[in-house]
Amino acid sequence: MTYTKKRYLTYLLITLFTLGTPFITINGNHLLLLSFDKLQFHFMGAVFNMNELFIMPFLLMFLFIGIFAMTAIFGRVWCGWACPQTIFRVIYRDLIEGGLLDLRKIKNKQKEIQYTSFSVGFRKYLSLFLWAILCLVISTNFMWYFIPPKDFFAYIMQPNEHSFMIMFIISTATFLFYDIVFMKENFCTYVCPYSRIQSVLYDDDTKQVVYNTNRGGNIYNNGEKSILNIKQWQNNEECTTCEACVKVCPTHIDIRKGLQVECINCLECSDACSSVMGKLGKESLIYWGSSNTVLKRIKNSLFTKRNNMYYLALILSLVLTAVFAAKKEFFLLNINKTTKLYNIKENGMVRNNYILTVHNTQDKAYTYEILLEDNENFAIKRFKPFTLKAKRRTKKVLVLETKKRLFISDSKDSAIKVNIIMQTKEDKTIQQTKTLSFIYPRNDLVQKASLN
Question: Residue 181 and residue 125: Cα distance in Å, rounded?
Fold first, then answer.
């Protein structure tokens, strides 16, 4: 199977996965969703609220380190095999213009469409119309990663109330249309920052598209073509100078010139060379391999010191993600003191009041209760277990009191740490421990209240 067919199959799988992911749910939760509407992040069936996004930094670390590692080891394989820009260009240029409407030759991507007849012009405008429809589909699919399809279709029926969503879709579709139709591969060359950092990450062990000068001969010397005709070959150089690799290149480069920032590792030049050299009973002169393996014939390993550091960083990011994800809170609990620091009763009893905000983030109702770790010195004066429905939030008053003389200072109030445990009666493992500051008044105030 040629590299081109392998890429097309990869594009198909990526497209199906991207279109289908918003519809995949696990126990009612989405596989991947960042909901600004409900302030939630769904990942692999788990739901994290906005104040639980402590796993996000580690996922981003894994993403960026993974991109650097992939580039350092396999070159710009992302650009040629998975980048949306490349996939969309293939859909528009090769599928719509080249396949469906026969406007261009897929094997020659250097020539622009010539409007020689009404038929050509009509088919060109038809291609633009078809791509505009696909842009709306693509931007809508992108929106589904922020608004789940079920809510999206409900919102779209009320356009006046969700105008921002509609404008976002139209803006994204407009950018895609302009990018793919007019910017083309110039986006990869001049706009995309990824192409600019590839040279920093490359070394002689990085897999890339390499023209084998040992077999084919040096077409370029110091950036200038050294031959003009095949008859000028003096040794056993195998390159026929047919230029097939140049004609098929979507970024308009000559891979025989060496590593260039425009190359996206699509390997279409390798397929073109294979078709020509195959007729001569020879292998392609263009390989996907490192400079060491192709030119110097030095066997390299995937487990170099540099690569091992990348692997270690990726594993550490995944471990930290799993550790913090395991600490997911099944309900949210926020505690604030009232404006009055404390109450002192006649018998010297001291009370502190708190306002609890409880949010049940689960899909079913739970009954919540509070326990004290220090029952010897403190007691709950006011709080009763309560039931909270799914996705609901409520506020409750908690009053703690102590009869013991806990003063620490004669000149100022003292803050004493008290741990409380809120848990559900249905499942004791669903709990949170919070530390409260119990304000105990200075000694003279307690003595004065006791005398009264």
Answer: 12
Euclidean distance between CA atoms 452 and 450, whole angstroms: 5
Confidence (pLDDT) at 51 = 63
Q: What architecture is domain 331-451?
A: Sandwich (2.60)
Task: Answer yes or no: is pLDDT of 15 > 90.
Answer: yes
The residue ranges of every structural domain in the chain are 203-294, 331-451
What token pair was written down for 63?
């993403």
Q: Are 206 and 72 in contact (CB under 8 A)?
A: yes
Q: Hey, what amino acid is at 134?
A: L
| Neighbouring-strand partners of residue 26 | 29
Helix, strand, coil % over all residues of the chain, rounded to 5: 45, 20, 35
**Out of 47-61, 65-79, 245-259, least confident range:** 47-61
Pick 228 or 213 by higher pLDDT. 213
The rounded distance, in Å, linking the Cα atoms of 298 and 277 is 24
- Report residue 130's pLDDT band, with 50, 70 and 90 as the boundaries: very high
- Cβ-contact 241, 265 below 8 angstroms: no
How many residues belong to the chain? 452
User: Would the pLDDT of 53 be above 80?
Assistant: no
Angle (CA) 4 9 12, round 5°: 125
Residue 440 Cα distances to 132, 402, 414, angstroms: 69, 9, 5
Whole-model pTM: value is: 0.73
Euclidean distance between CA atoms 419 and 437, whole angstroms = 9
Which H/E stretch holds residue 25?
strand 25-26
Q: Looking at the DSSP assignment, which residues form a beta bridge with residue 356?
A: 335, 396
Tokens of 275: 């078709």
Q: Which two tokens stand for residue 263?
A: 């190359």
